[in-house]
UniProtKB/TrEMBL annotation:
The keyword rRNA-binding does not apply. Residues 160-169 have a biased composition (Gly residues). Pfam families: PCuAC. It comes from Bradyrhizobium lablabi. This is Copper chaperone PCu(A)C.
Length: 183
């Protein structure tokens, strides 16, 4: 009598099935990926705003898979009166930030990360506070890719990165900004 072995095909199908299932299971915890022309935007997130704070921030990763540079020039959000692209830098030991009047260039083949302590989106005149767990829709405007809609995953007040990404490398905190920067 012969013992029936599983056929190669049935084993393959089981492995494939498990892989597909794993993808579905992994999907909800993976950061949203937004494609716009040659750009791929991932890890769009924000921080909860404490109390009656009227400004919020936004962070994301932009990869340019094309052969020409593009520029993030601005954007808008329903929740905010105004959205700007900012740069944060330490000058003579004082942390300052300023709007990037000429936008933020993403060179071809390069990835630019907006993260705490560096480039960021600034949301002014918040109409309601950003709460942990919220998804805040924003529209970004690129010189070539045009308008791109995505949503910011709101993390806790002191978060340094999107959920599950570990330490994003930023060690500066909005709470440590000079009082003059708060609005
Ligand atoms: Cu700012």
């Amino acid at each position: 009598m012969q013992i029936e072995k599983p056929t190669f095909m049935s084993v393959t199908r089981t492995i494939m099935g498990a892989a597909v299932l794993a993808c579905f299971l992994a999907a909800p915890v993976r950061a949203e990926e937004v494609k716009a022309g040659d750009l791929v935007i991932t890890q769009a997130w924000s921080r909860a705003t404490p109390g009656g704070a009227k400004i919020g921030s936004g962070y994301l990763t932009i990869e340019n898979k094309g052969s020409a540079p593009d520029r993030l020039v601005g954007g808008s959000a329903d929740i905010a009166g105004k959205l700007q692209v900012h740069e944060m830098a330490t000058t003579n030991g004082v942390m300052t930030m300023r709007p990037l009047d000429n936008g933020l260039t993403v060179e071809p083949g390069k990835t630019v990360k907006l993260a705490p302590g560096g480039y960021h989106l600034m949301l002014f005149d918040l109409k309601s506070p950003l709460k942990q767990g919220d998804k805040v829709p924003v529209t970004l405007e690129f010189e070539k890719a045009g308008k791109v809609k995505l949503s910011l995953d709101v993390q806790g007040v002191g978060a340094q990165g999107p959920a599950g990404a570990g330490d994003a490398g930023g060690h500066m905190d909005m709470k440590k900004m000079p009082d003059g920067m708060k609005m």
